[in-house]
Amino acid sequence: MARHQDQYSPAAIAIHWLAALMIVCAIPLGVYMTGLQISPARLKLYNWHKWLGITILALSTARLLWRMTHRPPADTPMVSWQRRAAHATHWAMYVLFFAVPLAGWAYSCATGFPVVVFGVLPLPDLVAPDKALASALKTVHASLALSLGALIAVHIAAVIKHQLVDRDRILSRMLPGTFESQPQ
Predict the structure, then answer these.
(1) Number of Cβ atoms within 10 Å of the Cβ of 81
(2) Which of 155, 152, 118, 158 is nearest to 28 (CA)?
(3) How many other C-beta atoms can be found within 10 angstroms of the C-beta atom of residue 59?
(4) Alpha helices (H) in 35-116, listed in sequence order
(5) CATH of domain 10-174
(6) In angstroms, rounded to a whole number, what is the distance separating the alpha carbons of residues 14 and 17?
């Protein structure tokens, strides 16, 4: 099986969907857990949220490295303003894929709660404990996360528009299992 010439590679597809799943879990989890009273359950959810964030950061690094070393498929024909909007949205999401977890990591450090990935891998503190800094970083982290959520909503809306209105194979470029058979 060979991939169609305008389809992303299996590795790019896997990273995309794994990161998407984690982000779709991390944002609502973050919103939900902040409304809970202090309890063991809330602390557990905070840890899960941190683990998701650090994993998203690692996947984003892998995705960026992959993107820097592998050419994407040729762009699907679309009007120039749509192409510019798509590129701007993608780059803004890339920035936020790094900024959101880094701000969350720094926020956790500023509150005096270290990040220990999966309960076994302690990460270095990015900043020293500081209440005022923690308060500012909490706002920054939440604002960046909500901005990322809004960009994801725009991204999904554009994909739906391209799939249902334009019918231009945008979605199939990033779907697993849509490979063409190679001639024998």
Answers:
(1) 8
(2) 152
(3) 20
(4) 40-69, 80-110
(5) 1.20.950
(6) 5
